[in-house]
Amino acid sequence: MSDALKNYLTACQSRVESALDARLPAANILPQKLHEAMRYSVLNGGKRMRPMLTYATGKALGLNEDTLDGPACAVEFIHVYSLIHDDLPAMDDDDLRRGKPTCHVAYDEATAILAGDALQALAFEVLAHDDSIKVTPDARLQMITTLAKASGSQGMVGGQAIDLASVGKKISLPELEIMHIHKTGALIRASVNLASLSKTDIDPAVAKKLDHYAKCIGLSFQVKDDILDEESDTATLGKTQGKDKNNDKPTYPALLGLAGAKEKARDLHEQAIESLADFGPEADLLRDLSLYIIERTH
Q1: Using an 8 Å Cβ cutoff, are 293 and 220 in contact?
Q2: Which of 128, 235, 243, 250 is most buried as measured by Cβ atoms within 10 A of its Cβ?
Q3: Alpha-carbon distance 113 to 136, whole Å?
Q4: Residue 284 and residue 273: Cα distance in Å, rounded?
């Protein structure tokens, strides 16, 4: 990781932690247990990759970071809600997330379900009303629509449904990619597209290239996750290593082998970089993030 990216990641993590904290209900407000669970799940660490992509895209477009706090928080609230629900016994049945007990283990299943539901609602409340978002009403509506589509049956939730239906089955590479374009890629694309929508005079051709960049890194992110599930360990990952393999879930290494999966990740990175060919140094953070995604260790 370059020093520039390392410093940027640290600054972004600090910024988004404060922004998330400010937008979450206080733990002492009724219902206290629910709000405690929401704060526990959101503020317990994590790479904050999606908010970082929102900020980095904004930088490439010359936007003020202050105007991106709302979109960055909204997409992270959706991401954390999805993690809470993914970890439930009815889904992936995991007891470790970001190196800590999952929400349903730290609290209980009912509270975890409600915490996820509340975070989903909070994401759209932020996009609808957050004063830091300086766009036209039409652009704000487009933001809400973008995140809704990325989160629902044609996006993340649909991808999770396909994932659950694929356990123990042999699926093709195109089918696997369709699953992850929905499950992982949709929200990553939304992270970038929400920043594009924050620039009211953006050239549609520029927005399209940024969307293609996001599509490529969304897939490469999942390919790398599958590789880490094979190669890393629980302590490093902060979640149970080997869970997908043990649950007989389809993965890129299972279909392509480890070497083939690594080649796939590299190819997606190169496609992402090509999408940014018309940008200058202002998009270097996006380039660095794409490389970081396929070289990370957790």
Answers
A1: yes
A2: 250
A3: 34
A4: 10
Query: Which three-class secondary structure state does DSSP give residue 101?
Result: strand
The H-or-E segment that residue 107 falls in is none
Give the mean pLDDT of 45-74.
94
Compute the mean pLDDT over every residue in the chain, rounded to the nearest whole number: 91
Query: What's the whole-model pTM score?
Result: 0.92
pLDDT tens digits, 249-275: 788 998 999 999 999 999 999 999 999
* Banded pLDDT at 246 (limits 50, 70, 90): low
> What are the Cα distances from residue 53, in Å, to 104, 121, 175, 218, 254?
29, 22, 26, 11, 29
Please check whether the domain covering 3-295 is classified as CATH 1.10.600.10. Answer: yes
In angstroms, the CA 243 to CA 278 distance is 40
Tell me the chain's radius of gyration from C-alpha atoms.
Answer: 18
d(CA 86, CA 50): 18
CA distance 31 to 45: 23
